[in-house]
Design a protein that fits this description.
3-stranded antiparallel sheet
């Protein structure tokens, strides 16, 4: 059933990781260049993979266990991306020539939150199905 709440959460993750990284800056360097996700190829690939994984997970609604596993894999991808952004933000200089951290660095955080909410909803559905099976 595609009309469940986890579909909304996964749709938001697909939207966040599929569109926002290309319109929201990740950081601004010392020289004034604004860096987007498309400027760093492997970051763009990970964002695209996360978006594709969320869309694939939406259509796995008949197999909740696989949905749960794919969400966990997506969480790991976003944690890897978040780790890179934290490392990069700690290495940006903040001295006399100021470099700005962009709001795009928070996209993996929002994605992880919505993926965890989707996993909770999937777990709740799985528990509901198991409880109904016990009554038969």
């Amino acid at each position: 059933m595609i009309q469940r709440i986890q579909t909304v959460y996964l749709g938001l993750v697909a939207l966040f990781t599929g569109l926002l990284p290309f319109y929201v800056s990740l950081w601004t360097g010392i020289d004034g260049n604004t860096v987007f996700a498309m400027d760093i190829s492997w970051v763009a690939v990970i964002f695209a993979a996360s978006s594709a994984l969320a869309i694939i997970t939406i259509f796995l609604f008949k197999n909740r266990k696989n949905q749960f596993v794919f969400n966990r894999l997506n969480i790991v991808l976003n944690l890897f991306l978040l780790g890179f952004f934290v490392y990069r933000s700690l290495n940006l200089s903040g001295e006399t020539s100021v470099s700005e951290k962009g709001i795009g660095m928070l996209i993996p955080v929002f994605s992880i939150v919505f993926l965890v909410l989707a996993n909770r909803a999937i777990k709740k559905d799985e528990d509901l199905v198991k409880s109904v099976d016990r009554l038969r």
